[in-house]
Amino acid sequence: MPLFRAPRGTRDLLPALHAPWERVEAVARDLARRYGYPTIETPLFEQSGVFERAIGSDTDVVEKELFRLQSRGEEQESWALRPEATAGIVRAYVQHGMRTLPQPVRLSLLGPMFRYDRPQAGRYRQFWQWDVEAIGDPGPAIDAELIELGYRFYSEAGVEGVKVHLNSIGDPACRPAYLERLAEYFSAHRAALPPLERQRLETNPLRLLDSKDPEMEVLIAQAPRLVEHLCPACAEHFAAVQAHLAVLEVPVRLEPTLVRGLDYYTRTAFEYYREGAEGQQQALGGGGRYDGLVELLGGKATPGIGFALGIDRTVLALQEQDRDGGAPAGTLAVVVGADPDDTAGRLRLATRLRAAGLAVRADLGRRRLGRQLEGAAREGAHFAVIVGDEMAEGHVQVRDLPAGTQRTEPLADLERYLRRAEASHHHG
Ligand code: AMP
After folding, report:
1. CA-proximal residue: ligand 1, atom 4 (nearest)
2. Residue closest to 339 by CA, chosen among 361, 376, 372
3. pLDDT-wise least confident of 117-121, 163-167, 389-393
4. Cα distance between residue 29 and residue 18, in whole Å
5. Which has the closest alpha carbon to 412: 349, 364, 351?
6. Is residue 146 part of a domain?
7. pLDDT tens figures, 306-326
8. Cα separation of 180 and 184, whole Å?
9. What is the mean pLDDT of the chain?
10. How far is ligand 1, taken at its centre, from the CA of residue 315, in Å?
């Protein structure tokens, strides 16, 4: 047994796992660039109030899952690790007066989030999200831009069969009346409610639709639906979002019970699922409109919309499809030598090639040439550059490890030779 282990619910992303990870992140960063959502980095922790106010105190994320940190000394602040990115980004939008910039402000963030959740498959205490926000546009066109962007992410990452689940959860004009109906409905079935849901009925009946309790399934399916009680403005917005998505040819499934777990959402709510993996805890990502959030965090009333896509679950989905893309393009060449003790000579040549931009390792063990060559092959290097007697005349041997062939190259040409080989190495 090792003395220490990574904390429960966290993972070491070892290089073999990090390789598909990097490819997925590269897709996200490239899409952010093409769609014009530049990167913002916010702190990994914020004043707890940022999350308590934004997300809502009676949500799972704040009630049970917030990683709280204790400040020391005079600061007397209560901090928490970020459980999601939107609240921090909106806090930054307000703090930096971004409403004076051309609207909407488009931003993206890729990084770890923290939730003190019960760990299980696909659910970690530290996980990664790609978060995209457009603040300052009431939609509906921007809603469609974002939903399509998320959809494209999965298709470019190679995740197959992804569908958008879409709903509208209304706004302060129509939701209160609906909530009353919903509360009446669930009150009529109070005896059948699990204790936690009975408690939520008092604080926020909408949350019951989001319940993870299997006993709630039938009750939820028969509950009154918000989409059937939208005010005219929300109904019009919702119809326009769908019309835009149809133009963009994004396949959408209307999902009347989709409410999302956080309080700040208004109108458009959406999640991404793979066909056949549409259960609780299986969403690949999700997002929604939050027209009240900027004001809630102390800014002027400003509409906004965003999404967060889970990187962990995306990589998991690719692995299930056997599509994680294999090993990364690693070392191109290993510098080995006939004189085991000449580590300086090997290191000097490797350093020169690295300075020229090539991925080259030197064998720094003092072992026989044969063992050095074995090590290079096992590492998956394409070439071994052999430093030997020819070095005196300015030549080295270059061994093509997979092919088993060997040739003499003048040192002066080595860089060019390896560089040409590198192009095929990456595509091979
Ligand atoms: P949420 O805002 O909770 O809907 O999260 C958006 C996405 O982040 C989810 O669809 C998941 O892909 C991912 N996610 C959320 N919580 C976790 C977690 N505990 N572990 C791994 N991924 C998560």
Report:
1. 286
2. 372
3. 117-121
4. 16
5. 349
6. yes
7. 999 999 999 999 998 876 665
8. 6
9. 92
10. 13
Per-residue pLDDT at 329 exceeds 50: yes
pLDDT digits (tens, 9 = 90+) for 401-412: 999 999 999 999
Ligand 1 centroid – CA 269 distance (Å): 15
Q: What is the pLDDT of residues 216-253, one digit of tens each?
A: 888 898 999 988 999 999 999 999 999 999 999 999 99
Q: State how many domains the chain has.
A: 2
Report helix angle 311-320 to 141-157, nearest 10.
40
Neighbouring CB atoms inside 10 A of 197's CB total: 21
* Residue 95 main-chain phi, psi, to 5 deg: -60, -40
Do 300 and 403 have their domain in common? Answer: no
Atom of ligand 1 minimally distant from the CA of 310: 12
**Cα–ligand 1 centroid distance for 287 (angstroms):** 11
Residue nearest to atom 20 of ligand 1 (CA): 123
For the beta carbon of residue 105, count every other beta carbon within 10 angstroms: 22
Pocket test for ligand 1, best of 51, 60, 109, 127 (most atoms within 8 A of CB): 127
Crossing angle of helices 311-320/15-35, nearest 10°? 120
| Assessment of whether the complete model's pTM goes beyond 0.85 | yes
pLDDT exceeds 50 at position 427: no
**422 vs 420: CA distance, rounded Å:** 5
> How much distance in Å is there from the Cα of 346 to the middle of ligand 1?
47
Shared-domain flag, residues 119 and 259:
yes
Query: CATH code at 268?
Result: 3.30.930.10
Residues 25, 51: one domain? yes
CATH number, residue 370: 3.40.50.800
423 C-alpha to center of ligand 1: Å? Answer: 38
- Give the pairing of strands 252-254 and 162-168: parallel
